[in-house]
Amino acid sequence: MRAPNFPLISLLAGMPLCLPAHAISFQTRLEKVEWTVEGDQIECRLSQPISNFGSGEFVRRAGEQVTFRLKARERWMGAGSATLLAAAAPWQPGRGDINLGVVSVGKGEVPFNSSQEQGARLLTGLLEGRSPVVRHRTLNGGDNFEVRLLPVKFHKAYDDYQACTAKLLPVNFDQIRQAQIGFPGGGIDLDPMARAKLDIIIDFVKADPSINSFQIDGHADNSGNRLTNRDLSRRRALAVQDYLKAGGIPAEQITMRFHGERYPLVPNNNEANRAKNRRATLRLDRVPQPEAPQQSAPAPTTTPVDPPGSRPS
Q: b/e per residue, 96-109, with b = 16+ CB within 10 A?
């Protein structure tokens, strides 16, 4: 015989319940379910508030696929592995829950992030009328614990979410924070692949102006003499610097260095390796800006008082 569906009870209450076998369930009342979509060119979020708990969120960053996470106002979940389900709705007889495996639970406001495969399957499940469900144990006492999202009103929110993801940039900061710009032909001019890579970086920086530090390091292989290689590495770094400046990056945010053949990526023992060593490295960073000093209020001025009997000339 099938076990009672305890989360259905919380549907009526819309608040955490102490259920048989010391189970606690969080779920929003059916009539109060809402979805929200927020985002920009860097990240899109599709979330459902969960009464008395926090929210469940689908997050897709630029350059990546969707993941699922919970955001908790209080720390309810103990450490360990929680089970993630695409649960069949009570009004869908004959359907079973789909076990999507486990997620590792940690501390903080966001106790876990699912894998991209789990996130995608949960989204598909919502389109099928399934509920994302997280089952675990409470932090204090180890009671059975469940959080459930509902598929109510999902399709309109999903359309808005897709409109957001269509505008995402092709990469995120972690993917571009250190880039290799190659000069495989041995010259100092940027080839189409290098320009395309720099264009992607410039577009991202325009969308995220908090990136304000660009360090360029030029390199060469060991084909020429030291002076020639040093000059080649300098001119390769200059080529990258000039392209960034032409793309709108302020010159004062760019630092340029060149090293000749001193720091090879791979041994210079064949032509394929030497081609890899002909490069410039671009490192991006967010450097906190010093706060502008507060200007002190000007000293009050004293209007001179004319002595008795004086008058303007």
A: eebebebbebeeee
Domain residues for 218?
173-285
Same domain, 21 and 126: yes
As a whole number, mean pLDDT of residues 217-234 equals: 96
Residues 159, 191, single domain; the answer is no
Phi-psi category of residue 88: left, alpha or beta, with phi > 0 → left and psi -120 to 50 → alpha: beta
User: Are 39 and 57 spatial neighbours (Cβ–Cβ below 8 Å)?
Assistant: no
| Residue pLDDT, tens place only, 129-182 | 999 999 998 777 678 889 999 999 999 999 999 999 999 999 999 999 999 999
Residues 147, 103 contacting (CB under 8 angstroms): no
Burial of residue 265 (CB within 10 Å: 0-12, 13-18, 19+) is: middle
In this prediction, residue 285 carries a pLDDT of: 98
Provide the token pair at 218: 């030029």
Cβ atoms of 105 and 159 within 8 Å: the answer is no
Q: Which of 11-25, 98-112, 189-203 has the highest mean pLDDT?
A: 189-203
Report long-range pairs for 203-208 (Cβ below 8 Å, ≥24 apart): 203/169, 204/42, 204/62, 204/169, 204/171, 204/172, 204/173, 204/176, 205/249, 205/284, 206/248, 207/40, 207/41, 207/42, 207/169, 208/42, 208/173
Amino acid identity, residue 199? D
299 located within any domain? no
In a domain, 295, yes or no: no
CA dist., res. 304 & res. 207, Å (int): 55
| Model confidence band, residue 77 (pLDDT cutoffs 50, 70, 90) | confident
Q: What is the pTM of this model?
A: 0.77
